[in-house]
Specification:
This protein has helices spanning 11-14, 207-212, and strands at residues 3-5, 17-19, 34-36, 61-63, 74-81, 90-95, 100-104, 114-116, 128-130, 139-141, 143-144, 151-153, 161-167, 170-174, 180-184, 188-191, 268-270. The chain is mainly beta and 275 residues long. It has a seven-stranded antiparallel sheet with strand order 9-16-10-13-14-15-17, with no helix packed on it. A hairpin with a 5-residue loop joins strand 14 and strand 15. The longest helix is centred in the last third of the chain and has 6 residues, at 207-212. The radius of gyration is 22 Å and the shape is globular. It starts with a strand and ends in a 5-residue tail after the last strand.
């Protein structure tokens, strides 16, 4: 992919940097791999807003993506497509028996390339193998946490993890955050880096593009009334007047670690904060 800048024909165009979509090879998605996707507006099953600043946005349909990569055989990449539900591109692949699936598109994979899954497939970009069978130093993405559940980590645009070592049935992986984590060797991962590397360099340019994505406006707590936010109130520009920033409900914010001491904590060798 690439980026394109615009002439300042309007305030919104002046600073925007947009995707040129030149890596997209097909306009319409595969109908058999689509599913309905209804708007939630940040509300739970009781109708209460549990996530603020959500609502509106363009209508979408969900693309059924194969994160498990559990089908044996070789598949040919038919197209590279846009997915409105994720930052990465998706690739439509077709197996020799005619079955089509979507996968998270790796970087540098193009139409006509072949991808495969299994313990004995080559260690090349786009192929999926168990972590325990990958050589040290291999760059991977779409990593499973539980064998057979499907990839849960490293799926965003441009992200990549690295296999660091193998020991006692576990594989040590360095994640994009810098965290070093042990994972079972049976967990699968896809070789290579996720596509759409320039996503991080895009600039929306105007509030309207955020609204198209279903994001509603956010207001700083310090400009609210004291009844609406702990930071609110005061004359003019005032400090927050308390030890440490708070959420609208008075809980510690901005840096407070909220991860529970779960059973999987023993698999984290180095936290992302300890770099």
């Amino acid at each position: 992919m690439g980026l394109k800048e615009f002439k300042p024909t309007s305030p919104g165009r002046r600073d925007s940097v947009a995707d040129d979509y030149k890596d997209i090879t097909k306009g319409k998605p595969e109908k058999s791999l689509l599913a309905p996707l209804s708007k939630k507006g940040g509300r739970n099953n009781r109708g209460r807003v549990t996530v603020r600043h959500r609502g509106g946005g363009h209508k979408r349909r969900y693309r059924i993506v194969d994160f498990k990569r559990d089908k044996a055989g070789t598949a040919t990449v038919m197209s590279i497509e846009y997915d409105p539900n994720r930052t990465a591109r998706i690739a439509l692949v077709m197996f020799e028996d005619g079955i089509k699936r979507y996968i998270v598109a790796p970087n540098d994979v193009t139409v006509g390339d072949t991808v495969a899954s299994g313990e004995d497939v080559p260690v090349t970009t786009g192929n999926s193998r168990p972590l325990g069978t990958l050589p040290t130093g291999t760059l991977v993405h779409n990593i499973e946490v539980t064998p057979g559940k499907g990839g849960q980590m490293v799926k965003s645009a441009g992200t990549v993890a690295q296999v660091m070592a193998h020991e006692s049935g576990y594989t040590l992986v360095r994640l994009p955050s810098g965290e070093m984590r042990r994972l079972l060797g049976e967990c699968s991962a896809t070789v290579g880096q996720v596509s759409n590397l320039d996503h991080k360099n895009e600039k929306l340019g105007k509030a309207g593009r955020n609204r198209h994505r279903g994001r509603r406006p956010t207001v700083r707590g310090s400009v609210m009334s004291p009844a609406a936010h702990p930071h609110g109130g005061g004359e003019g520009r005032s400090g927050i007047g308390m030890p440490g920033p708070k959420t609208p409900w008075g809980k510690p914010a901005l840096g407070k670690r909220t991860r529970r001491n779960k059973g999987t904590s023993k698999f984290i060798l180095r936290r992302r904060y300890d770099r």
